[in-house]
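Retro notes (design track)

What went well: tokenization of the new backbones is finally stable.
What didn't: we kept losing track of which sequence belonged to which structure.
Fix going forward: every design gets posted as structure first, then sequence, in one message. First example under the new rule, 498 residues:
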């Protein structure tokens, strides 16, 4: 066992840091400050590193936490073997070993256990925590979120989420979902905001917890920070310390401060993610697509007063139901179109296999919108004019513009600064409905540009074809997907080469 004495950055006290070689690599153990009194509440804080990082990379975080936390705090930073993926089989062994070592070093048997996981380690650590809630007092997710399918509101253990706003791996769009779910749950149980605090760190990225230490390719996927990472790390660690203190001991002053600070941080997370959340229900909400409804209205070519002559109802179907053609009718003097569309999401990653889950895209890939073309509509709406003939390309450009104008000023500026173009190309016209269904919206990187091409399928407006006359099908770009480009993909270090 190797022992190192280190000074904190604040030069206050020396901490005892030891490296211990166990099953994995060299785990780092930190003992409480010498001055901490006996009989004080004891806490063990165990950090599980991001894939490809070592225990040493998190020493800074550990040192700051030791410095600010008022409890008798023991820290262990795991060093999982390099060539081994962390699993539900080996994680408990590693945890058992380090806790055993901490006990050897003097930690009492009643210490509360807190687990912290960075990035891709978050998945296995949260699954583990959910399985053994009685043994873990709290979970701290660093630049990561709960595994999909788990609701924060019903998680058996208090969970703190600390994520950089510019985390290029754990997308702010993903955090937006967490915020949304917590907001909904908190309407009936406001304490959830304190039990499951969310801290979104402005201008910081995935590397906040380890300085510049991210290995390739994580580094390239990340977004350049806009703040002094060391400064914001200290603020983040203050919040972590408050979470631990409140969960472990809940002295009155910590309870009051936790309520105040975590309410504030939640309000902040809500406001940062507001533009993203407000676009969510455009694609799909309550079985309907507001975006397809708008697209169908535009496609009708009706403008001004005339556009109110047409009512549109746009349903989102599930893949089990055979796609229906859109219908056009008149009832009680009202002209209406009913459309049926599919929304395609990125392939579900096998949660048991992949630890890459938190980095995946969250927005739907495309909307297969089955709409009615202007000619058929104007056969019914006599005396109206087709003010403009739209294409899928126009509708997709509108989607991008909607996302851009909904984004925060800050996000717009970041996007503008990368100075890269999204180009919308003329539609690719398909010969059959089947072919159209099987051809995805085309999105490709060409040079320093992103090219988006809508896929269309049209039928001529011949009554003999009824109900397949005058149809106009488009593969549409969901506004949220464009939003993810603006907020994440396009401003990453490895975004389309300039
Ligand atoms: C990992 O690497 C170590 C040493 O390089 C080796 O002894 C061990 O068998 C490897 N384990 C796996 C699962 O490949
Ligand atoms: C979408 O949600 C926002 C609030 O998040 C709400 O104001 C808006 O009316 C909703 N839009 C639709 C089309 O449901
Ligand atoms: C269309 O316009 C003509 C001439 O202005 C008028 O006679 C007719 O009633 C109108 N039809 C409808 C359906 O409004
Ligand atoms: C729209 O297309 C129709 C038929 O293709 C054509 O008759 C009409 O002039 C076009 N309208 C405009 C405004 O381009």
């Amino acid at each position: 066992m190797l022992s190192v004495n280190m000074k904190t950055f604040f030069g206050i006290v020396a901490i005892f840091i030891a490296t211990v070689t166990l099953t994995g690599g060299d785990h780092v153990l930190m003992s409480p400050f010498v001055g901490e009194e006996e009989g004080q509440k004891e806490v063990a804080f165990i950090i599980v590193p991001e894939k490809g990082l070592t225990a040493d990379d998190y020493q800074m975080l550990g040192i700051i936490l030791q410095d600010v936390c008022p409890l008798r705090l023991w820290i262990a930073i795991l060093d999982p073997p390099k060539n081994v993926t962390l699993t539900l089989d080996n994680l408990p062994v590693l945890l058992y070993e380090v806790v055993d070592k901490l006990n050897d070093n003097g930690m009492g048997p009643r210490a509360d256990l807190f687990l912290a996981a960075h990035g891709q380690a978050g998945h296995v650590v949260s699954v583990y925590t959910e399985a053994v809630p009685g043994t873990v007092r709290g979970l701290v997710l660093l630049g990561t979120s709960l595994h999909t399918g788990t609701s924060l509101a019903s998680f058996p253990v208090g969970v703190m989420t600390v994520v950089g706003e510019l985390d290029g791996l754990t997308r702010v769009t993903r955090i937006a979902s967490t915020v949304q779910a917590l907001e909904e749950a908190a309407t009936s149980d406001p304490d959830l905001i304190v039990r499951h605090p969310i801290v979104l760190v402005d201008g910081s990225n995935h590397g906040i917890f380890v300085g510049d230490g991210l290995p390739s390719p994580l580094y390239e996927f990340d977004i350049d920070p806009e703040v002094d990472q060391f400064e914001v790390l200290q603020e983040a660690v203050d919040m972590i310390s408050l979470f631990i203190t409140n969960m472990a001991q809940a002295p009155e002053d910590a309870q009051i401060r936790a309520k105040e600070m975590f309410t504030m941080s939640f309000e902040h997370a809500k406001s940062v993610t507001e533009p993203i959340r407000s676009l969510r229900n455009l694609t799909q909400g309550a079985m309907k697509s507001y975006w397809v409804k708008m697209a169908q209205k535009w496609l009708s070519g009706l403008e001004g007063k005339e556009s109110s002559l047409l009512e549109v109802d746009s349903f989102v179907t599930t893949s089990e139901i055979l796609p229906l053609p859109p219908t056009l009718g008149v009832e009680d003097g009202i002209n209406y179109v009913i459309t049926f569309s599919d929304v395609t999401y990125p392939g579900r990653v096998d949660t048991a296999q992949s630890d890459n889950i938190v980095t995946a895209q969250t927005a739907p890939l495309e909307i297969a919108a089955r709409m009615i073309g202007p000619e058929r509509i104007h056969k019914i709406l006599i005396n109206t004019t087709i003010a403009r003939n739209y294409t899928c390309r126009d509708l997709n450009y509108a989607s991008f513009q909607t996302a851009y104008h909904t984004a925060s000023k800050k996000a717009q500026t970041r996007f503008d600064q990368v100075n890269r173009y999204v180009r919308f190309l003329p539609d690719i016209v398909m010969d059959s409905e089947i072919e159209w269904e099987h051809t995805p919206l085309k999105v490709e990187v060409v040079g320093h540009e992103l090219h988006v091409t809508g896929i269309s399928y049209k039928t001529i407006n011949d009554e003999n074809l009824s109900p397949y006359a005058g149809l106009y099908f488009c593969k549409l770009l969901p506004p949220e997907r464009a939003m993810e480009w603006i907020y994440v993909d396009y401003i990453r270090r490895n975004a389309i080469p300039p």
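Added context from the reviewer: Residues 285-488 form one domain.
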